[in-house]
Amino acid sequence: MSEVVARPQGAPCRVSLLVRNLPAAQDFYGRLFGWEFRPGPQNLGPYTRALLDGHQVAGLGALPEGRAIPVAWTTYFSTENADRTAEHIRESGGTVAVGPLDADAAGRMAVASDPSGAVFGVWEPHHHPGTDLTGDPGSLAWNELITRDPTWVDKFYAAVFGFTSVEVESPFESRVLLELEGRQVAGITGLGDELPRDRGPHWMTYFAVESTDASVARAGELGGTVVREPQDSAYGRQATVVDPEGAAFSVIEAPRTA
After folding, report:
1. Within a 13 Å sphere around the CA of 57, how many CA atoms are in the beta-carbon half?
2. Whether 188 and 239 share a structural domain
3. Which spans of this chain does the record mark as coiled coil (predicted)?
């Protein structure tokens, strides 16, 4: 069931992708998830809002020419004051790489990395709160930090955003759920030495789909590459895909109930 979300301070509130070929990225994600696109703030470069049934579900923008940085989805966390949060990030051992700066009248933002090197964003909403729909196929489902050891990096996010950490028992991995006001809003998975060296710690974006297998097949037809084949989990059938420019994301099909 879809949900129009009012997120508390610190919760993931939007996801954004900067690419080298914006029209090609719009074509890929539009045909995969049924997104439509409308112009967004242009003061930082070409940028579009991805819409699903009129609701904003993501943002896509063009990388500045000459910037040799990886193409990757970025998770943004809501804040009432981006400048104050940027200071908390620095004080807690993180690094602020961009901003804080205004995105026209939409809001104020910053891009940072935690002490392990995982990149994330901070969003202070003004006229646009960010992603306002979850749960429907094609919309944001979950955000998960993939890192080596969650038992210390979760302290950084608790200090900056006020998360409460809840450990999850698993025989295969170390996992922590991050809660705000008693609600699970994100997770951290520790893979130890199994963490891919070519990616390092990173935030993974999960999009809801009707059928994981069908979505994976469709992504392949559109030029994407499967890096983790569909498999069942306690949270639903999921898989990980890399888009034609190399940005990884996951799709998850919620478990069906009788």
Report:
1. 29
2. yes
3. none
CA 165 to chain centroid, in Å, comes to 19
Instruction: Please indicate, yes or no, whether residues 107 and 27 belong to a single structural domain of this protein.
Output: yes
Rounded alpha-carbon distances, angstroms, from residue 120 to 32, 59, 145: 24, 14, 10
Q: Structural domain tally of the chain? A: 2
Which residue's structure tokens are 């935690």? Answer: 114
Distance CA 106, CA 128 (A): 5
> Span 226-251, mean pLDDT?
94
Last residue of a domain, one of 91, 125, 159: 125
Q: Is 61 domain-assigned?
A: yes
Supply 81's token pair: 């004051």
Overall pTM > 0.90? yes
36 and 103 both lie in a single domain: yes
> At which of 60, 94, 125 does a domain end?
125
Report yes or no on 2 lying in a domain: no
Domain ranges, residue 224:
140-253
Calculate helix-pair angle for 82-91, 150-161, nearest 10 degrees.
140
Whether residues 144 and 237 fall in one domain? yes
Q: Which long-range contacts (CB under 8 A, 24 or more apart) does 171-180 make?
A: 174/149, 174/150, 175/150, 176/150, 176/151, 178/154, 180/8, 180/9, 180/10, 180/11
197 by Cβ neighbours in 10 Å (0-12 / 13-18 / 19+) ranks as: exposed
Q: Which two tokens stand for residue 221?
A: 């037809």
Q: Could you give phi then psi for residue 86, rounded to 5 degrees? A: -60, -40
Q: Which amino acid is at 112?
A: A
Rounded to 10°, the helix 22-33/212-221 angle is: 150
Token reading at 39: 């112009």
